[in-house]
Amino acid sequence: MSSDREMCGGPYGEVSECGDPAVFEVRRHDRSSLPVCPLHLGPSLLMGSGVLWPPEISLVARP
Ligand SMILES: [Zn+2]
């Protein structure tokens, strides 16, 4: 069943090539938060552009 859940933005937050539902949102500097799936949470913290450090992460959906 499809829903209005946000899709993962991928580890870089630029292109969405993942397609999984987002479970976390990573706050970023000067741009909108990056929605990511559990798999891409780690990579997005390390490689996403504008990610705050230390990271600020919100749980936005059930895994
Ligand atoms: Zn993903």
From TrEMBL:
Domain of life (superkingdom): Bacteria
Q: What is this protein called?
A: Uncharacterized protein
Recorded source organism is: Streptomyces bauhiniae
